[in-house]
Amino acid sequence: MLSLIKCEFLKLKRKKIIYIIILSAILFPSATALLLLSRRASDSPAQLYDELYINSIGTGIQFLLPIVISILATILFFTERDNDTFKALRTIPVTSRQLVLTKITVLFLSSTLFALVTHLLSLVLGSIFFSYNESPEYILITIANGIFIACGTLPLIILNVTFSRTYVFSILMTVFYTVLSFFLVALSPFLPKTVFRFVPITSTTLWTAGVLGKIGKLGLEMYEANLRAAIPSTLNISIYMALIGTVSIIIIVKLYERWES
Amino acid sequence: MNEFIIETKGLTKKYGEQYAVKNVDIHVRKNTIYGLLGRNGAGKTTIMKMMLGITKPTAGEVRIFGKDIRKNEKEILPRIGNLIENPGFYPNLTGTENLKIFVELRGVPQKDAVEKALELVSLPYKDKKLYGEYSLGMKQRLGIALAILHDPELLILDEPINGLDPIGIAEMRKLLRQLCDERGKTIIISSHILSEIQLISDDIGIIDNGVLLEELSISDLRNKTRKSIGFLVSDTGKAATILENVFRIRNYDVRADEKIFIYDLTYDISSLIKAFVKNDIEIYDAHVYENTLEDYFKEVTGGVGIA
Predict the structure, then answer these.
(1) Most exposed of A2, A74, B200, B254 (fewest Cβ within 10 Å)?
(2) Which value does ipTM take for this structure?
(3) Angle separating helix axes A200-214 and A234-260, nearest 10 degrees
(4) What tens digit of pLDDT does each residue of B143-183 get?
(5) Which residues between 11 and 30 in chain A have a beta carbon less than 8 angstroms from any beta carbon of chain B?
(6) Would you call A2 an interface residue with chain B, using a CB distance cutoff of 8 Å?
(7) Strand B67-68 relative to strand B80-83: parallel, antiparallel, unpaired?
């Protein structure tokens, strides 16, 4: 399994889209840091450090990461098919189940890695421009976001690999999905709270806000009562994400096995 | 009898109502090269895919190293190298990087495995050229390199000389012969090119429309395809006596329909005819036969020649 994972990363060598993904990880924390520079006169460095982190999570992870995961999934799941390499793997022997489980593992690893890079960048930039003000909860929030966002994007990957096979479609669909997730928050007065719990990215956003509120890094009063009531507990969201993840993985494995046989 | 490395029993593959492969019994002897000869679409690739367990047979079984492939994949597949249809590699990687992936996945312990395999197929080891930029011949060579990378005992190669130039074909023939003769490998190759199969194989299987029509050794084939002087005579027994007693010919064959064939072309046909006539044997036809593999293939498949 370790060899398979290692090889999935080796296969990505020289793919231009990977360089774009790495660049995109740098984009949001850097842009946010630059914007926050103008507020150095009015806000304390510690406040700005926290704001940089919170913003980076919101934009760099919750908005950008689903798109990155979708693109990566498209590359990973179609490599064997596009290059006719499955027969060579099959006769090693590697089964289609082993292969697809490896690819899903790589997605989760990449998602967590991407979240950690975003976090690290916000930490470094925040320390340089403002002042180091890291909370011990931050790293947990980052890792949880990486995993939750990966789980929440898997259903989209099912749609993508079933109905399309192009990057353009996958990017458009995921952008639509993430924008919709963010839009739901704005529509909170008009929607029942189950909607927020049901949409994975919205749910992740609310959970993150909840944890940040609890440790006094975010004022929750700016949220509608309706929205505040929808904030899931850590246990609830973990169970929900595990459920979405497991069901999606089973479907993806079945789909993949059917193509490659 | 030699033990068989590959043995198929009643191997059949049906797609819908159409038979792709029908009731095929192939026998590949240890340490030999077996040539599977047939037109495009005759079922060669399907047979090889079933040998590797990639395609599931509708009926029958494939035994490799004496065991059913479908039940012993994990044990058998690592001992086989293969090339099926066109080679498939990652276009964004160099040849060396591609092979390194398979070294990793196959768990090949030798550190120089990639270098050696590339050397055998005459591809450079330190080359920045990506697989996507390879020519057809280079792709094919890399495919062969992958097949021999883990030093397997058995090679299953589907059209291995596809896309190679004449020099490349000769090199490949030499390489495969070497692997068989010097390193004890067993090889099965398929091709639609008669002369290649004839040049390289120890045993030949002729397949047409999914049916294995004949399986024979190269020496049997040589007998069936060699040049001969053929006579159609009224009394083959008498003619045979004359050949033996007067001309001291042993190398002849009496076949049905009053036909007698002499496989030594050094004899003068006119003196043979004179001797027959003198002994009251009537001669209806006298001919030098040159039976090529192509003629034989036509005869066996009962159709037009091969593409």
Answers:
(1) A2
(2) 0.89
(3) 150
(4) 999 999 999 999 999 999 988 899 999 999 999 999 999 99
(5) 11, 13-15
(6) no
(7) unpaired
